[in-house]
What we know:
By secondary structure, chain A is mostly beta strands. Chain A is built from no helices and 11 strands. In chain A, 36% of the residues are buried.
Amino acid sequence: EPEVTQTPSHQVTQMGQEVILRCVPISNHLYFYWYRQILGQKVEFLVSFYNNEISEKSEIFDDQFSVERPDGSNFTLKIRSTKLEDSAMYFCASSDGSAKRTEAFFGQGTRLTVV
Amino acid sequence: GDSVTQMEGPVTLSEEAFLTINCTYTATGYPSLFWYVQYPGEGLQLLLKATKADDKGSNKGFEATYRKETTSFHLEKGSVQVSDSAVYFCAPQRNQGGKLIFGQGTELSVKP
Lengths: 115, 112
């Protein structure tokens, strides 16, 4: 069964450094998302992406964050200058957005640790 | 804004016990409703869904019915197994392709 893949599974970075989290969504899907889960807390929406542009973003998704779909298969989340509070599990998801199959499929996540 | 309230965990049950995890939501319109499950150390997996009022989603012995009148989507299973131990998330989605709004999650621990 097709799946969403994320790399790396774990990333450790120094505070102030830039990180790029990578995702390969399911190939025929049209909607792409990033969520994050701080340890022990709920899953929070960051951003959704459709038709090569951001369709919705949360208050968390400030100017430090950006997303890109550089080559038609990858979907990346960049954090320009990481802060300690960015430490979390980051999940990528995709969906085809159709009425019959609107559910999102999630990757296994990237655990980001900012030190 | 849209929100979800789930039963607080952890919920600890013995194997073969009956499970109910309550979920109520506030959302405009007619959202689709989902339950996702997160097993230890893993990502989120879709457990079941319902896309309109009175629909019942079911999978792996779990069921949930979309109750528009009470804005609820309670998860039930008649006989839980140790392998059901996980965190369960209720999540409405307001429109096709839209974001999911996750509840705080309910941790379930099933003892043999």
